[in-house]
Structure formats: structure tokens, C-alpha cells
Amino acid sequence: MGAIAKRLRFVLATTLLLAPFPGYSQEKGSDAAPAKKKLPPVLAEAADAKPDVVLSGKMSRESAGPGEDIRFWITVENRSDKPLEKVWLEHLDVPGFTLVRRCWSDSRADAACFAKNETPAAPPAACETSSQQLLGTELCELLGSKQTLTVWGDVHSARAAPPSADFAVVRWTSGASTSRAVVTLGQVESYGRLRSVWEAVTGNWQIGIPVWIAVFSGLYALWKSWREGKAHQKATEFEQQRHTWNLLLLKVHGLAFQHYMPIVSTIQGVLLYFQRLKLREGNPEENRVGAFCYVVRFHWRVRKMKRSGASWYFKDLTAEELVVTLVQTHRHSLGLSDLRRQAALDEFLEDITEEMTVAGMLKYLENVSETQARFWDDFCRWMVRVEARQEGALLSALTKVITYETNRPYLYWYEELRAIDWTDEELRKIREVAKASDKGQKGFSARVESYLKDTSTDKNIKITQQRGKIRKFFTALRRDPSVLP
């Protein structure tokens, strides 16, 4: 019995705890719906309050270029129970623009105020009296209760101005009070002429896309024409160069074997006897005769080259000028600018042959004319100061230039062109001769200096080819390291 009583007490307690109380349930319900609470009377009246006059406005565009017009409009809505009197446009603030058309008053009949074939509607009767037109800034004489008025006009771009918050001020009278309010029109920017063109090209797709297509098409056409022209010019120049090269290479090759190398060999004979005299080797008299023999033979070979219609034809024009200048300097040093001495030399040149040796010259000198004998005596006196005049350095430099320029066309045959090993005496003599020739050849010294620098460096095709191979190897190595052996 005791156990049954305990169970009954437990069930009764649980029932009492779970059963809802009426008062508590109503309060909780009221808290669960706070949105349905009633506002205080004062707040409710403020929320329901609406303005008596509503103003709005807008601009038709956000930008304009020089000389362009933009339309604006203003709407006045009278929501009050009283009419509005003397509705005026007191101020219009659009920087950079001027008001040019009022489509509510003096410009009302302007065709620009309406669309094409549009029939203008009659203005509201309340907005003007029958006896007179509205003034320029007066929008409406009397706007009735619950009525709306919309007016529009045009402003003209007069100068460049940045975008600004444009607005208008509207004034009206209601009863005994006068009110003013601001109408926001938006932001409008006035462009200058250059900016206007740029905006039209970049911003207006109807204008911009065709313009850019035309511009890029024109640029591409110009580039293509320029490229084709350059390619044609390059091909033409290459063909002319190849033709000239094929033509002159054989000619220069023949001149080298027929004239240039024999001249160099003859000058080397002169230098040999100059050296023997300097070192006091052998018989001085025989050395002078030997030097004389090779000097006369040198002039004989030069004359032979000229009589055959040949001259100095090198790949470098400065080298040609330098060789001519060195030869002329040698002739002047020998006194050949004197016609009598030139005539005496010509007698020798007429009698000697290419095969004449030093022994033959000794025998020939035993029976010469008085003019030739005088020339020989002058040559012996000339030989006394040959070292002081650095005649050997001049003739040595001459042989090096001729040899270098003769080998230049064979660069792609030998795959190298060795630099000239100039001596200090040769460089000094060349610069002295070039400086003396600057008056007759403007800038000759500068060109010769550049030539000396260029010929002091080896030209090696193998190095260039080897660098290309090395570059290709490292490129392949970066892509695939397995190329290493």
C-alpha cells in the first residue's frame, strides 16, 4: 500500500507541473508578437505625416561636349488641400552650362521643345492667365490641390567643367507663407573639345568601335606596307650585294694576285735593305743599290696597275683612302712632286723589267743618262735621313693595310681574319699622315682612328659558331638534364 501511495503522489505532482496556467499563457502570447504592439499616438501621427509638396528633377545626360544641349525637367506635386501660388524657378545651378530654352514660358512654341511630329499639349489653364504669358522664371501662376506640374528646358555647354551636384531652387506661396525647396538634378560634366572627341571614340560604341576598327586597320595596313617595303628593300639590297660581291670578289681576287701581293712583296724588299743599312749588315753601297732597285720596282708596279685600269678596291673605303694617302706621302718624301725628278724616275721605269735583279741594277747604273745619274745621287742623299723620316714605318704600315684588306674577303673561307699587329712607330706615322690630310679630307683622322681600332681585333667566325653551339647546349640542358654524358 505504501508503494502505491508513493506512485500516486508522483503522478499528481507531475500533472500539476506540466499543466499551463491561464494568466501566464496570455502574457507570453503578447510578448511573442511585439510587431503588433500599438505605437504611442504622437509617434503614429509622425509616421503617417507626408509632405504637402513633393519636388523631383533629372538631367537627360551625364555629360556633354562643346556646343551640345542637355534637357532637364522638374516636377512639382501639390499633395496639400490648398493651391500653390506663384510657383517660380528661383535658381538653376548647372556649372559649365547656360540656360538657352524654357519650354514652359517664352520658348513654349519652340520646335526644339518637342519630338518630331509631336503635337504640343495645351498648358494647364490654372498655370497662366488669359491676359498674359508667364514670366521667364515663373512655372505656374496657380497649381491646384492634388495637381502635378512638369516643366522642362535645355541648357547649353559653354565651357569645360568637372562633374558637380546640379540642382534647382523652386519657390511657391501657400496662403500667407512663402516656401523654397531644392530639387536635385544629378551630376553633369562638361567636356572640352579634346576630351569630347576622346569620350566619343572610347565611350560611344556606335562611334568608338568603327573608329577604333578603322584606326587599327589603318595602322595594320601601314605596318604591313612598311614591313613589306622593308622586306622588299632588304631583298633588293641583298640581291644587289650578292651580285656586287660575286662580281667584285673575282675582280679583287685577280687584282690581289696580279698587283696587290707583288706590290707588297716589292715593298718588303725595300724594308729588308732599310733594315740591313740600319743594322750595318753587308756592303752599304750594295744595300743602297738594293733599296733603290726595290723602290724603283715598287713605282714600276704601281704604274703597271694604273696603266691596266686597276686601282685599290677594298671592302673598307677608309682603307682605300689610307693606302692612297700613304703612297702619296711616300712620293712627296721622295721628291716626285718635282716634274724633273718624276721625269728621271720615268726613264728608269721605261728601261727596267719585272725580272731585273740587284746585280742587274748595279750593271745598269754603270751607263745611265745625266738625268738618271742626278736622280740616283738625290736618292742616296734621301737615304741618309730615311730613319729620321720614319720612311720604313710608313712603308711597313702600307704593306699591313694592303695585306689585311686583301684577306678580308676571304673571312668566310678561312673563318678568321687576324688583327693587324701595329707597332708604335707605324701608329705614330699613320696618325701623322692622317692629321696632315685632314684639310683635304674632312674627318679623315677620325675615320682612320676608327679603322685602326677595328683592325686591332681578331674576326673569328668559329668563336661565333661555337658560342651558338654552347647556347643551344645549355638550352637543351635546361629542358632535359639527361643530355649530359
What key phrases describe this protein's structure?
17% strand, single chain, four-stranded antiparallel sheet, 2 domains, five-stranded mixed sheet, 54% helix, Immunoglobulin-like, 485 residues, 15 helices, alpha+beta, 11 strands
Structural overview:
- It is a single chain.
- The chain is rod-shaped, with a radius of gyration of 55 Å.
- The longest helix has 75 residues, at 205-279.
- Mean pLDDT is 80; it is low at 10-35.
- Helix 4 crosses helix 5 (205-279), helix 11 packs across helix 13 and helix 13 packs antiparallel against helix 14.
- The strands form three sheets. Strands 2-9-8-4-6 form a five-stranded mixed sheet, with no helix packed on it. A four-stranded antiparallel sheet has the order 1-3-7-5, with no helix packed on it.
- Strand 8 and strand 9 (177-190) form a beta hairpin.
- The protein has two domains: 53-200, Sandwich (Immunoglobulin-like), CATH 2.60.40.10; 243-469, no CATH class.
- Helix content is 54%, strand content 17%.
- The chain is an alpha+beta fold.
